[in-house]
Amino acid sequence: MGASAADSSNGSGVATPGPVRIVGTGLIGTSLGLALRAQGIPVTLTDASPTACTLARDLGAGVVATPEDPEPELVVVAAPPDVVSTVVAAELAAHPGAVVTDVASVKRAILDELTRSGADIGRYVGSHPMAGRERSGAISGRADLFQGRPWVVVAHDASRPGAAERVTALARAVGAAPVAMPAREHDEAVAAVSHVPQIAASLVAARLRDLSTEAVGLAGQGVRDVTRIAASDPTLWTQIFVGNAAAVARVLTEMHLSLGAVIDALESLADDPDADAPGSRSALAALMADGNAGHARIPGKHGAAPSVLATVTVLIPDEPGTLGRLFADVGDEGVNIEDVRMEHAVGRLVGVVELLVEPAEVEPLRTGLTARGWNVSE
Questions:
Q1: Which helix (DSSP H) or strand (DSSP E) does residue 354 occupy?
Q2: 19 prior amide bond cis, ω within 30
Q3: Strands 350-357 and 310-317, sheet pairing
């Protein structure tokens, strides 16, 4: 064990394992390496692509693995979902003293495949950091990617004592919040909160493909918010959908029934908007109300109950450094920005910046920014 690893338990009662061997240097693997190295934990890297591996090394995520390396205490497999079980089995065999985890977004299929293969699954504990970006590859890696994000730790009946604690310590070491969950429960949960939202974003974005340039030019922040993750990697997501097909299909079936009711209501109103179409308006209102209720359950900052934020809208010139000056002035006003949204005004060389802040901060911020010369919308 490396000296720095021995000195840190991260509140789990188990020292952060090191050296850590990371297999796969895409976004997650590279980000994990960067986060661990920032804590002084030794990391070795390997990837099927030598170019990807050396890029991750050059970014500071660790050193390229060699046969002379000391045996790892923990191996993290960050390979594509369709090869994870094969790679995990190989790492279990190659490193008989190590706990092996993976970071794939599907867990039950991997555990089932490993069980059928006869691998030593006592040293395997699956995991899934609920963090990512729509951009992929080592170049997109960030040391703070896991900060404050849930990291699901998926132990199973055959897990050896202490194995799950090693993975939990890893999650804490990179600033994540560990959550213990069985494989089936995990897969059902991510189908609803991650996999189906990806499909929904892609479906909405696909409707834009054949629109005229003029029509797409009308897009505002709403469609940007809904379609942001539609830029994700098609190959990766196809593998994820295949691995969690049953759970994703169940959620989509429920959505299909709700969507059918909405379509029926809209068609009845389209035929004759003035007609008394029993239930049509209530079906639409119920959809919006259910959406409000679901949205209200999404955790806010640091996992706390969500707060209702207010918006301060500022019109800024499209010039280098302007956004930085705006943020600096907001900071000088003593206001914390909870979130920010930006878009360009159609046909004008200006940007519209929406600053989301606590409601009590709205009027002081508007007054302060106006006094500093900013064009603040009422």
A1: strand 350-357
A2: yes
A3: antiparallel
Please state, in angstroms and rounded to a whole number, the distance separating the CA atoms of residues 223 and 195: 19
**Structure-block tokens of residue 179:** 């959550």
State how far the Cα of 265 lies from the Cα of 282, in Å rounded to an integer. 9
> What are the average pLDDT values for consecutive 10-residue runs of the chain, which has 378 residues?
40 63 96 95 96 96 95 95 95 96 96 95 96 80 92 96 94 95 96 95 95 89 88 90 95 95 88 67 88 83 64 88 92 90 67 88 93 89
* Residues linked to residue 344 through DSSP beta bridges, in sequence order: 351
The Cα–Cα gap between 92 and 79 comes to 15
Instruction: Look at residue 309 and give its three-state secondary structure.
Output: coil
Taking only Cα atoms into account, the Rg of the chain, rounded to an integer number of angstroms, comes to 24
Task: Report helix, strand or coil for 233.
Answer: coil
Task: Residue 347: name the closest of 167, 217, 220 by CA.
Answer: 217
Determine contact, residues 368/352, Cβ cutoff 8 Å.
no
Could you give the dihedral angle defined by the CA atoms of residues 196, 202, 203 and 209, in that order, rounded to the nearest 10 degrees?
Answer: 180
CB 24 within 8 A of CB 91: no
pTM for the model stands at 0.76
Which residue in this structure is represented by tokens 């590279």? 30
Residue 336 is which amino acid?
N
HSE, side-chain direction, 13 A CA sphere, residue 115: 12
CB 88 within 8 Å of CB 124: yes
**377: which residues sit within 8 A by CB, 6+ positions away?**
313, 314, 315
